[in-house]
Write a structure and sequence with these properties.
Strand content: 15-25%
Radius of gyration: 17 Å
Number of strands: 12
Strand order of the largest sheet: 4-1-2-3-5-6-7
Length: about 290
């Protein structure tokens, strides 16, 4: 068996265009703006591997489109996000179309605990789930709920394996955790969108596939080094984007953010990041 990556789209989401680019008073702009994006994909990634399949993120679930799932008291969920997810878009049916069940997975890696990346966790109540220790701490308590985390939607008694990173650098990244004996699937810290955000690098046939979660919403935003509008940690986000961009300078990286409408096509065509475009690229708004 060779290593392969499958894009699994668990529906789509519309957000305010102000969320795409960090600007002064971003929070106010996001809540008050009337400008919405077109539907953006919610991608998870299934890594087919000789050591066992690995799932990166669980996407969102159809229940998020039903009344009472999202907290109405939270202004972001009330005014700034709209999910479009059919029952067959859920991660369970998506895996089944590949002939897999949750029990077949070797492990599940969650880039961060925002609901559009962790909304399908209940499907994997019996699986080993990797989450960074920093992300877990950040999501706890009433402060975590204000920050937008939804622990009520996680499996009962959810106890993920909490990851910390060794101090030895991995290229431009502060550290790395290989999760396969072949060391061809590696988790790297990419804080910024959330403090404990992580990404996954998969090496296949001389190319590195960077499963970016929300390190940036689009490849264009990576190239232009523009953090998103919801981060509370813009300096960390900017630093992470610079590190990913330096890593991409080798010319062998396929960059796959979770909400970029072009990610699946780049995966299929094995299109690498061209950082020579520099800061002249403006992130598209997908209106």
């Amino acid at each position: 068996m060779t290593v392969a990556i499958h894009a699994l789209q668990t529906g789509s989401v519309r957000i305010k265009t102000a969320q795409l680019v960090r600007a002064p008073f971003s929070a106010v702009r996001i809540l008050t703006s009337r400008d919405w994006t077109a539907p953006l994909p919610i991608y998870c990634w299934l890594i087919e591997h000789p050591e066992g399949p690995i799932l990166v993120d669980t996407g969102q679930c159809h229940a998020a489109c039903t009344q009472g799932y999202l907290p109405r008291w939270h202004p972001y969920y009330r005014y700034a996000v709209a999910f479009q997810i059919a029952p067959e878009d859920d991660i369970g049916p998506s895996l089944a179309r590949l002939g897999l069940s949750p029990a077949d997975l070797r492990l599940v890696i969650v880039t961060h605990l925002h609901t559009d990346h962790a909304g399908g966790l209940d499907t994997f109540a019996k699986n080993e789930v990797f989450v960074s220790e920093a992300e877990w701490r950040h999501a706890q308590g009433w402060v975590g709920r204000v920050r937008g985390f939804l622990p009520a939607q996680w499996p009962k008694n959810f106890a993920p394996r909490l990851l910390d990173f060794p101090s030895s650098p991995y290229g431009p990244f502060a550290g790395a955790l290989p999760v396969t004996k072949a060391r061809d699937v590696v988790i790297v810290p990419t804080p910024g969108h959330t403090p404990g955000h992580i990404s996954v690098i998969v090496t296949i046939g001389g190319l590195r596939y960077f499963l970016a979660g929300d390190a940036s919403y689009t490849q264009a935003a990576l190239i232009a080094q523009i953090p998103d509008g919801v981060t509370f940690f813009p300096h960390a986000a900017t630093d992470t984007l610079a590190r990913i961009r330096r890593s991409a300078q080798a010319g062998d990286m396929v960059y796959l953010p979770a909400h970029d409408p072009e990610s699946e096509q780049r995966l299929r065509s094995r299109t690498v990041v061209d950082v020579s475009l520099g800061s002249t690229v403006t992130p598209p708004l997908y209106q």
